[in-house]
């Protein structure tokens, strides 16, 4: 696929954000939730620490491998995973454990106050869009439980569309929705093979990689900037006056069958 011609001068109107491990700490938050869940199991179900660790980390391993089978309802799918991790001895605890895991998970995935302030500040001058890979149920669950809609002018989940990052069409769809051109947009994300490669192929003005401890695969492109945190983004942006927001159509949250995910 040909890469669109990229502009040499930044005239920024819109900022595209990835979700998992960019704005919310999905991998780190899931690990913290599981650590807390182990303590909860030992304390409330008189389970040995070794049994609790084996169960919870078995679940986390298989959950990360396949966070959602779109052919199965989301909660039913996760309960299947918990049944597998619990085995026969503790299978009767699956409903209680699942509810506790959900509570802990979204506690640790919540936007920090610093990120909230950043989004509010940026949205006073730019159009903000969330572009995330994953199934509709799993990603919209995050959007709704974490109250993310209020911070964005558009939200695009690959499960609602025929494409996912790095296909440039998902970026073009966001541009058309906002009424902007690709060269007026930048992309911020944590994955070279989806966020950065996709942003370059779509001809966005610039790409920003959030550096993580995970080894990044080699790609034919490089980010324009590497950040240790999304909080560093403002150092690279031109100053703009407060904007009058355009009237935008509602974002569809229609469920379809994509199963690739930025996170879990």
From TrEMBL:
SUPFAM superfamilies from the UniProt entry: HAD-like
Hydrolase as UniProt keyword: yes
GO biological processes: N-acetylneuraminate biosynthetic process
Protein's recorded name: N-acylneuraminate-9-phosphatase
NCBIfam families: CTE7, HAD-SF-IA-v1
Essential cofactor(s): Mg(2+)
A single GO molecular function term of this UniProt record: N-acylneuraminate-9-phosphatase activity
Transmembrane segment boundaries: none
Keyword Magnesium belongs to the record: yes
Record keywords: Hydrolase, Magnesium
Domain of life from the UniProt record: Eukaryota
